[in-house]
Design brief:
This protein is mostly beta strands. It folds into two domains: 26-57 and 78-249, Beta Barrel (Maltoporin, Chain A), CATH 2.40.170; 264-405, no CATH class. Helices cover 0% and strands 64% of the residues. The protein is built from no helices and 26 strands. It has a 17-stranded antiparallel β-sheet that branches. Strands 7-8-12 form a three-stranded antiparallel β-sheet, with no helix packed on it. Strand 7 (122-125) and strand 8 form a beta hairpin. The protein is globular, with a radius of gyration of 25 Å. The two termini are 21 Å apart. Residues 39-365 form the TonB-dependent receptor-like beta-barrel domain. It is found in: Cell outer membrane. One of its GO terms (biological process) is iron ion transport. Its main location: membrane.
């Protein structure tokens, strides 16, 4: 699989402030992902699979600013910053029956990742916020990890499955493409590899001739070197960097998930889900004056819930409505900026045939404003009693046409 994408964006501050300072970035990323698998015949115990994976990506970024009046052609650009990733993985999994209704599965994955960064020295003029700089760097680093997984599942009866699992996960470390103020003394050019252990127990049920499917699970996740996007600020809340990844936190998350899918009638299908999570920083000394240990993990809602109804009154016509809710969410690690519970409504109407589908949809029907990024109390504006955060998409409608051949 290969994919290339380019994003060009410009950002302004406020209304009357718009002519004072604006920032932009030109980002280009190309990646390739290759995977080969060899597996046993379906239904012939024991079940096994082995495989190899190779991933390559290249990313280029140009940061720019405009201080004072002007148009897009007047932005001052910093020099090009580039990074490259190359990952290799070998994996295998074996499922062995222990009797007619009990199975054990074991898996092992080895991953090795190389990260590279190249840039010449550059500067980014933010006007009253100062000048951000980045040094000339030609860096590379290697990361590797062995990732085990084990699970046990049991079917006491044909329509009930009970399972438990434990697995290790990770995200390789890497290098930031960004810029910082001269007031920043630490090394934020690189970040470490995140590792985690996940433990889960759950059940799945099929009822009423499989017209109703129920599932539930409880989980605990413990992560070290937790990776987060951050913008560095000083004691007065003034911004000291562009967006960076940091990895100096440890977290613990625990919770449960419930899900149900059922056909009320041959024409009406319901899907509902609910999840609760208690997630906190178990160790997060961000700086000498910032200790967030014990706080809730930012951007993790206390719960999420959804309800979707699909109705097919006659062959070809589909009417669908959705409601998606999220509970109280902290927008910063200090737990000072909070988003109250929100509900988003979506709707669609479609006409479907074996070959083509035409669909009209509206997302965020009530045009609800939802914050989707970390919040900052100053953000180059000075203290004015406002937290600044990114906002999700407003009401969006569209027409989609698809054809199969």
């Amino acid at each position: 699989m290969a994919q290339a994408q380019r994003c060009v964006a410009w950002h302004g501050f406020g209304h009357d402030r718009l002519a004072l300072r604006r920032g932009g970035h030109d980002n280009r990323e190309v990646y390739w992902n290759f995977e080969a698998r060899l597996s046993s015949r379906p239904g012939s115990p024991p079940q096994w699979v082995v495989g190899l994976n190779h991933y390559v990506s290249d990313e280029d970024q140009i940061l720019s600013t405009l201080v004072g009046p002007g148009g897009l052609d007047d932005f001052a650009s910093a020099p090009l910053q580039s990074s490259r990733s190359r990952d290799y993985a070998a994996f295998g999994q074996l499922t062995v029956p222990l009797g007619q209704r009990l199975r054990v599965t074991g898996g092992l994955r080895y991953e090795r990742a190389r990260r590279e960064k190249n840039q010449v020295a550059g500067a980014l003029d933010l006007g009253p916020a100062g000048v951000f700089t980045f040094a000339a760097e030609d860096l590379q680093d290697d990361y590797e990890e062995l990732l085990p997984r084990i699970s046990l599942d049991w079917r006491p009866v044909d329509n009930v499955l009970l399972y438990s699992s434990a697995s290790k996960g990770w995200i390789p470390g890497g290098f930031n493409l960004g810029a910082t103020s001269s007031a920043v003394t630490g090394d934020f050019s690189r970040y470490g590899a995140e590792t985690l252990w996940s433990y889960e127990v759950g059940t799945k049920l099929q009822l009423f001739d499989k017209r109703l499917l129920l599932s539930g699970a409880a989980f605990i996740i413990e992560a070290q070197d937790w990776q987060e996007y951050n913008v560095l600020v000083n004691d007065q809340g003034q911004v000291l960097s562009t967006n960076l990844i940091t990895s100096n936190a440890a977290i613990r998350s625990r919770g449960f998930e419930l899900e149900a899918t059922g056909k009320v009638t041959p024409q009406i299908e319901l899907h509902a889900s609910f999840g609760y999570v208690d997630s906190k920083y178990t160790d997060y000394r961000f700086s000498a004056t910032q200790d967030h240990t014990g706080n809730k993990v930012k951007l993790v809602p206390e719960y999420d819930a959804s309800l979707a109804v699909s109705w097919r009154p006659w062959k070809g016509l589909l009417l669908r409505g959705e409601g998606n809710a999220a509970g109280k969410t902290y927008l910063n690690a200090e737990n000072l900026a909070v988003q109250d519970p929100v509900l988003l409504l979506n709707a669609q109407i479609a006409w479907e045939t074996d070959l083509w589908t035409v669909r009209f949809y509206v997302d965020n029907l009530t045009n609800r404003r939802v914050f989707t990024s970390s919040a900052y109390s100053n953000f180059a504006m000075g203290y004015d009693g406002t937290y600044y955060a990114g906002v999700g998409q407003p009401r969006v409608g569209g027409l989609q046409l698809s054809y199969k051949w």
